Amino acid sequence: MTSDRSGTGKAARTHDRGRRDAARTEEDGRRSPLSRGDGSRVVQDGGQIVVIAKEPVAGRVKTRLTPPFSPEEAAALATAALTDTLDAVAGAPARHRVLALHGGAGPWLPPGFAVLPQRGTGLDERLAAAFEDAYRAHPLPVVLIGMDTPQVTPALLADAMAGLAVHDAVFGPAADGGFWLLGLRRPDRALLLGVPMSEPTTGTAQLLRLRAAGLSVGMLPLLRDVDTADDAAAVAAEAPSSRFAITLAALGTRATR
Fold first, then answer.
1. Rounded to an integer, what distance in angstroms lies between the CA atom of residue 223 and that of residue 57?
2. 128/49 Cα distance (integer angstroms)
């Protein structure tokens, strides 16, 4: 879950420290399965899933994909990623589905989603507000994801919902050191405000904030966000039948340069 802030400094720092932090949180995930103590699975459909996203407008989304892609091509990839994400949410067990949107909805929005405007300036404020607004409308556990992981599946989201039946929070670490999912049984903006976002240590800082508050945290698998052209190629290979992969294939081989 990242912003579209560009800069080679972030990429360089991510290469080392971010990978170490991601490996550490992935190991935490293997030690903290989202299940009861007897190993049985938990089914949870009494919560809600929130997707936080930008309207996929050329020049405003996926700016780190340009170059090698044009702004229009980057927006097409963003539209595909958002569509795949919304489809996964639509197929996951949840009582409510919400899109916290910066901009306006388009034909990519499927039925069954409530649309809320984003509030706040920094990403930490916007995430906190999305949790707060969804929980105010429906005081139920909230799972929040971004639009950068089109490889996400309904089964992964079901695991996240199930995790909130046995944990206070669930956390999905991202390969760049951030996180692709955060779920809270009872949202509190203090759990997010001030966490440095879009840094290679964002995921570690967020996880430490949760644990410092005394919350039990269930871990989800490590996923790769789509930020760069290399990310796009790797994610498309993981989900070859996704709209994202099909869109990328239609744009040619520039993603591997």
1. 25
2. 14
CB 131 within 8 A of CB 142: yes
DSSP codes of every residue in 96-156: EEEEEEES---TTPPTT-EEEE---SSHHHHHHHHHHHHHHHS-S-EEEE-SS-TT--HHH
Read off the tokens for 161. Answer: 């919902």
Tell me which residue of 247, 254, 257 sits closest to 75, measured CA to CA: 247
Q: How many C-alpha atoms does 133 have within 13 Å on its Cβ side?
A: 22
pTM for the model stands at 0.84
Q: Each residue of 43-94: pLDDT tens digit?
A: 445 799 999 999 999 999 999 999 999 999 999 999 999 999 999 999 999 9
Residues 182 and 127: their CA atoms lie apart, in Å, by: 10
CA separation, residue 132 to residues 110, 116, 126, 189, 202 (Å): 23, 11, 10, 7, 21
Helices and strands (H and E) in the chain: how many: 8, 7
Length of the chain: 257
What is the DSSP secondary structure assignment for residue 195, as one 8-state letter? P
**CB atoms inside a 10 Å sphere around CB 93:** 15
Tokens at 182, concatenated = 């955060």
